[in-house]
Amino acid sequence: MFNIKKISLFGLLLIALILVGCVDVSNNQSTDNDAESTEASEVEVKTPKVKEGEKVVEIGYSGPLSGPGAQYGLNVLNGLEMAANEINETGFDVDGTTYKIEIVALDDKYLPNETGVNVKRMVSENEPVAVWIPHSGGVFATQVYNEQDNFIIMAYTSEPRQYEQGNELMIGIPPKYNIWSEPYSNYMIENFGTKMALLPTNSQYGKDWSESIVPVWEEKGGEIIYKTEIDFAKETDYFTIMTNALATDPDVLFVGGPSEPTALVIKQAKELGFEGGFMIMDQAKLEEMSGFLGGYEMLTGSIGSLPIEDLNTDASTTFVEKYKELYNEPYATSETALNYQSLYVLVGAMKAAGTVEDRKAIMKAVNEGIQNLSEEELVLPLEGIAEDGALQWEYDAGIVENGEVGTYPVD
């Protein structure tokens, strides 16, 4: 296991410079409080034990570890830590040298300007080969300089726009959310009807997801009959919002955001008598929501991300059991599993490239590294990496019928 130590704060001058160039595109949280947004976060350095002759490869993490997104960020970091601990049991060989993984983790409170400060600090003090960033705003903020500063962005966000820049040092970890638009629409129209009310989170991610689903829904004969957004940082009572939405008599509700508040939105709809379908954005997880709702019964009629434990493969079952035991958690979500596996992908690429330093060579070797992964390391089936840097997973959607989780195919 890792030992944790603290490292020094980075200079205020660098913070001021970075804040000029970073824009919040992941959510609408206020960043007007300069004291809060420029306050340097405490660093956790998770250092492996190394034997004589062994060397360390540093990776970074900048994501939410406090505030409303803390559990989400922790799920990502836990997946990285779990994989690193396994890898560090023996280390991995690159060109005759044994390496182990050191994780440098910083809290960015889900704020892109904080991500920019954090990652610049890591690059200056630690020179990580890659940095995991679990939100689109942070990815966009660091895309501005990562190629120049020579580190790989491990982007855990389903936002398709992150690929538009053509960044040569970026790996997109989860499936793009626009792959869900057609199967979600098909299932909902087939089973519930054509009238949909939009009630997404008010973040940029929520706005973009809505813009992705609307044209597909309408092309299939669907109609948007109500539209609003929910500010989960401020709203805790959804009665008025839901009453207004249900007054339009929708067949389907489009909802999503963090798992807990999304579950409460669904609960409010059920308590007001809604019997239609729920189309759930991929940030909210069926398994986590079932924990807040006392089971899957209230989620009947939903389509969303398939729970990892319902993949029912040897690798996924082993992973879920091990994760729940190690972290005393009731669920192992896709955040944990995909980031766990993505560290194995990066290590496999370094081994295949024969270098831990040449970032471009590592990127070119990702497909070869994936082909060399063992069955135990493939929690989810992974075909390779596309030219734009997106990992290509085989992943079906999850549906809930009569309180039971099932699968719905995605082409």
Automatic annotation (TrEMBL):
PROSITE patterns: PROKAR_LIPOPROTEIN
UniProt xrefs under InterPro entries: BCAA_transport, Leu-bd, Peripla_BP_I
Stored CDD domains: PBP1_ABC_ligand_binding-like (cd06336)
Domain of life: Bacteria
Residue stretches making up the Leucine-binding protein domain: 57-368
Keywords assigned by UniProt, alphabetized: Signal
Pfam families named among the record's database cross-references: Peripla_BP_6
Family the UniProt entry places it in: Belongs to the leucine-binding protein family.
Name of the molecule in the record: Ethanolamine utilization protein EutJ
Species: Oceanobacillus caeni
